[in-house]
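Sample pair:
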Amino acid sequence: MPRPSNHRTPSDPPGTPARRAALRLLDAVLRRGLAIEQALDGSTQGLAPSDRGLAHAIAAEVLRRLADLDDLIDSATRNRLPDDAKARFVLRIALVQALRLGTPPHAAISTALPLVDGGPRKLVHGVFGTLMRQNAVLTDPPALPGAVYARIAGNWGERVADAACAAIAAPPPLDLTLRGATPVAGESLLPGHVRIAAGTSIPEREGFAEGEWWVQDIAASLPARLIGARNGSGSGRALDLCAAPGGKTLQLAAAGWDVTAVDASESRLARLHENLERTGLSATVIAADLLKWAPDFEADAVLLDAPCSATGIFRRHPDVLHRVRPRLIAEMAELQGQLLPRAARWVRPGGLFVFATCSLEPEEGEAQIERFLTDHPEFAIDPVLPDELPEGLVAHPRGWLRTLPGMLAEQGGLDGFFMVRLMRVAGDS
């Protein structure tokens, strides 16, 4: 499918550029395998912020509902459209607007038809019209892609897989991590945490410009919480590895640590610099490949939020449901297996080492740590304690924490993570 332009021609109705950008985003995810955030800037270049937001919302909702949208399309076509046919992409965009985003059907189809660009406009118009006359609906919960459902069910059971279906029905609430004691309105699940409704405009919210808080899923905030506040012993130096975009660096800095934050992506580190400036917190920031870089000191605490498949963050990033394959999971697990022992060497005797991934895959969590502990007897699990967790979460009997779809569902859920806190109990490695 050719990559569509964002430019509006004189005959296009208003709103078409945002739909063209949504088509570019879907093409980037479904055909080229890119993350939606990775493709966002290029796909929405030249658009006003409101159109950029609309394009992202349309594409994300299509990705949440892709299997169900395709079932509707297939029910109204005599010959099945190829998966990569532009007509299928355009119909997904038109249908999700009319059936989920509240766009009047005439506006949904009028802004979608120009995207066909010389293709079968009559087919697209006819299928859309047929489904509207049939009062087609997209029901909850949405269906996961079959391979994803099978993988989750195989690892964690059908109950968790069904909970994952429910979790993609709508964007989740927003979690804020507080810099200090300034109160912020919302629901608190832990000290220093506030949960607010999805769709809230972040830059305009009170306290954002003053750096009183930052957005961070509560599951993503737990690894730094496992390190805790600087206690006055040792050097007080902490390493935040694979640090960008910086939520954990901010947590550690706010807790009094002398933080060195390292990440290979200079573009992602730009956001970390912005957040440090906004919050008034400080850290040493280094752009480097962890397989080549090493510190010249041993740290009291090391946090390795390792690169992973990111399958646990599908609620906010539904693109992972469609672009993550077993090969990527295996590649990420191999990389983690290289990073874990390397980062462990930088922990002083008696120091803490927290390993975390935002993945639902055991290969990127439990299996990594079991293998690491077998090979590194100088480390032992320091079990996660009940008072370190939101009510309703329980650590595994082995002492680590695994968060899954369905947990804290009544409070709005949380991302899927694996995390473990280790202590270096001996000096030899």
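The mean pLDDT is 94.
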